[in-house]
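[step 3/7] inverse_fold.run input=structure_tokens len=188
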């Protein structure tokens, strides 16, 4: 799919702010794909569509999670997690994207998962460090992403978990599993 086609499909789904964020994720994902030898085109398409379902009504997302038999524990955790798997589903159904690697990069961009592919790592990290992101610790992860994708990702996941804990929010178990899986890299 051409970039313009994809952007035209995504734009009406998002607020202007979220669309600008998407453009940042796209540029960052392409840069990371070049740097770490991933498929640039897949990185571009996954990034463009990663937040496709962000503004769908909660009830619609809940219904899709139930009907499609996505992990039902999602419903017990923050609704912020839902747009990722629901997005993967809708991007296939409504935008006609069938590449499973691309769809998985969308599916796991919020929770992560153990055994993340290079493309999944790139989209997760691009979402975290795109130029429009301004929060404590982001610059450190940006710097790390220039040298070592896995170390940058570990830091991003750590920050995410600690941020949630500090706010007394639940942490989705897959995010802990992602952290545990990544932290053992280089220790085996
Ligand atoms: Fe997202
Ligand atoms: Fe995002």
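[step 3/7] decode complete -> sequence:
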């Amino acid at each position: 799919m051409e970039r313009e086609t994809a952007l035209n499909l995504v734009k009406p789904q998002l607020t202007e702010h979220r669309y600008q964020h998407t453009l940042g994720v796209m540029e960052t994902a392409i840069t990371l794909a070049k740097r770490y030898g991933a498929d640039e085109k897949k990185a571009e398409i996954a990034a463009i569509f990663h937040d496709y379902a962000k503004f769908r009504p909660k009830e619609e997302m809940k219904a899709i999670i139930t009907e499609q038999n996505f992990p039902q524990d999602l419903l017990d955790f923050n609704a912020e997690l839902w747009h990722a798997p629901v997005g993967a589903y809708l991007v296939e159904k409504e935008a006609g994207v069938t590449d499973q690697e691309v769809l998985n990069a969308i599916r796991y961009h919020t929770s992560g998962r153990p055994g993340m592919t290079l493309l999944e790592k790139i989209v997760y990290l691009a979402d975290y460090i795109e130029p429009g992101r301004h929060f404590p610790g982001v610059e450190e992860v940006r710097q790390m992403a220039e040298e070592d994708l896995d170390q940058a990702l570990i830091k991003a996941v750590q920050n995410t978990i600690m941020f949630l804990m500090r706010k007394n929010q639940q942490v989705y178990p897959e995010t802990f599993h992602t952290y545990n899986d990544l932290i053992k890299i280089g220790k085996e």
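[step 4/7] annotate
The CA atoms of residues 94 and 110 lie 21 Å apart.
The chain is about 65% helix and 0% strand.
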